[in-house]
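Figure S4 source data
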Amino acid sequence: FVFLAGCKAISAGGPSSPKIDASKVGVVFMHGKGGNPGRNITELLGALILEGYQVVSPEMPWSGARGYNATYQDALLEIKKAVRSLRDSGARYIFVGGHSIGANAAIGYAAYHGGISGVLGIAPGHVPENFNFWPDVKRAKAMMKEGKGDEIGTFPDKNQGTTADIFVTARIYVSYFDPEGPAVMSLNAMKIKKGIPLFMAVAKNERFKNGGAFSWVPDHPMNKFIEVDSGHREAPDAAASDAALWIQKVVALKQKDTPSN
């Protein structure tokens, strides 16, 4: 799904909020595990569109329909493609964000690729270092060593404490579930490229809070951590107004630092 907002100057937080050129702001926002661009994030996307931002919400490899059909690294390349599409549409200030595993990938993108104005992590999820799936990861790695990395196997996945089998190639499984691999959020948080701030919102009523990665993020004056009064699934909508205002403030700061552009 691609959502294009109208071009206007906005002031999301009231008369005292900084004015920005919303047409120059682009947001890539990703859904959670087993979801799609229309599930659990529609109000947040709508709020960003109403601000005048250009918004892209791609269907990611972990959607219900795609079922992990690409590696974590390839997922980041899909994000890069979405970022490029926003730049081609005239966006100068681009933010990458997501819900649950989408938040994980947004942080991963800021670490491995960078080149963006900020990251939004809403109710971040997918914590392979806590899943206790090491025997399954070892089995998948053994398949790869045997030249069977592209063969499909049955492996466990975990979503908000519930374990279920998934049917994926060994190579794809390792990319998402290796406890020392590319999808470890805390490690990626430490590697976020210089100058990229993080907005993180955790849900007060969610069973598993994964906001610990925030403590590993490089210092930035615009880093922001909040708790919203919601459950895991409702967190994006609950954080919508705070996220929109944070984007506005980051852009205003960047415009102030580069007044000639």
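Figure S5 source data
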Amino acid sequence: MRDRCANTFSEPRFGVPNLNRSDCARNALFRQCARWLCVALLILVCSSCVSWKQKMAILDSESQDLVEQVRVATESGRQEQAAELLKQAVASNPNNAAVRQQLSEFLIANGYSEEAIQQLQKTTVLAPDDPRPYIDLSYLLYEKKQYTDALKNLELGLTLDPTNIRALILKGELEELAGLNSSAVETYHRV
């Protein structure tokens, strides 16, 4: 009985000269080396992911420490220090949506609506599945009389949280302003 490789790659069958058992063995060795190389690359990629996650955890813990300092500063009436600490927290980890949300809430509470709008817009990009920044942004835009943008953000927020009472009330008000009284009544009934 002939070797399978010799039968498969024989010259009469494919017209390929000089393909014999040693070539088949070399190809098998190459495939085995390629498999090990893939495994080694996978391990390397996974180890770099773990170190990245550890780095992000450290950044998050640093940001959370700063946020705790903000809470203490706010409770003791040091608003300027609290604002600076929150800005530091955002600067140390600009991709942390939770810290940006807290900064925007602080800015809203202290009357800095323009800065809060900017932070909330960045937060919606970082956390597109969180309805809070959309709804908070809608309220700020409503106060600025940017009703169309407010309604767009509100719709996104209500898509994520269709039973949010604050959002439903604001939607009803916006529909009333637009003259859509029947829609406003339906929205208020959902509350």
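The two ends are 81 Å apart (CA to CA). Residues 95-190 form a domain with the Serine Threonine Protein Phosphatase 5, Tetratricopeptide repeat fold (CATH 1.25.40.10).
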